[in-house]
Design a protein that fits this description.
The protein has 5 helices and 11 strands, in the order ββββαβββαββαβαβα. It is an alpha/beta fold. This is Probable S-methyl-5'-thioinosine phosphorylase.
């Protein structure tokens, strides 16, 4: 069976229902991963789990060592990665607690270590990123989602912002004009690094707030947390359905 890793985002620092078998720390040429790698059994299947923001949820999006995380997963023989990410909804149909399996992305991040192909190169390498997500894994997630009552959007354009602050209304307006449907802070460089190492990578986004200027009021952490605790139930249901396929 394909070795699967789940990268947990905000609200998924611990994967409830995961029976942990052991934890492992691997040295990487890029420093330390966000946390020890967690090996365990979820929905009856062996998986690897990595909380992106650290086991104590204290690593902000722009400080995450994306290279160490992806490198570690590759070293452990991972072939497929489901990346869970909390996002804001830009498209009017994309409402809090809905899930989105994005098919495209736009990268607005800066200053992050974003490639493995930087130093000591035998030759310059340009990876293809026409389709930034693994379509096979995306389709498997969509098939699994058919068994759920949760609203799961089958596609969407993920705009990756630098954070840790949220966006201004004008920034969201620009992102909407660019074609973004959802906005989050961790989608890149994670997706590109996974592609550089030939990992099949798809994202399960959970909407936790209307993006800036799209709701009736300011975005508060309390609102985000309330939506997250409902939305994460949907994420767990999708992961379980996916693993039971
Ligand atoms: N913007 C960026 N990242 C986010 C948001 C948002 O509104 N909500 C959750 N992650």
């Amino acid at each position: 069976m394909t070795q699967l890793a789940i990268i947990g985002g905000t609200g998924l620092t611990a994967l409830e229902g995961l029976e942990i078998t052991h934890k492992q720390v691997l040295p990487t040429p890029y420093g330390e991963a966000s946390s020890p790698i967690i090996h365990g059994v979820y929905a009856g299947k062996k998986i690897i789990f990595l909380p992106r923001h650290g086991a104590r949820h204290n690593i902000p999006p722009h400080k995450i060592n994306y290279r160490a995380n992806i490198w570690t997963l590759k070293e452990l023989g991972v072939e497929a990665v489901i990346a869970v990410a909390a996002v804001g909804g830009i498209h009017p149909d994309m409402q809090a607690t809905d899930l989105v399996i994005p098919h495209q992305l736009i990268d607005y991040t800066y200053g992050r270590e974003h490639t493995f192909f930087a130093d000591d190169l035998a030759h310059v390498t340009h990876i293809d990123f026409t389709e930034p997500y693994c379509e096979q894994l995306r389709q498997q997630l969509l098939i699994a989602s058919n068994t759920l009552t949760t609203k799961v959007h089958h596609q969407g354009v993920y705009g990756a912002t630098q954070g840790p602050r949220l966006e201004s209304t004008a920034e969201i307006n620009r992102m909407e004009r660019d074609g973004c449907d959802i906005v989050g802070m961790t989608g890149m460089p994670e997706a590109a690094l996974a592609r550089e190492l030939n990992l099949c990578y798809a994202c399960c986004s959970v909407i936790v707030n209307p993006a800036a200027g799209r709701g009736l009021k300011e975005i508060t952490m309390a609102d985000i947390e309330a939506n997250l605790s409902l939305g994460i139930v949907n994420v767990r249901a999708l992961l379980t359905a996916f693993l039971n396929q």
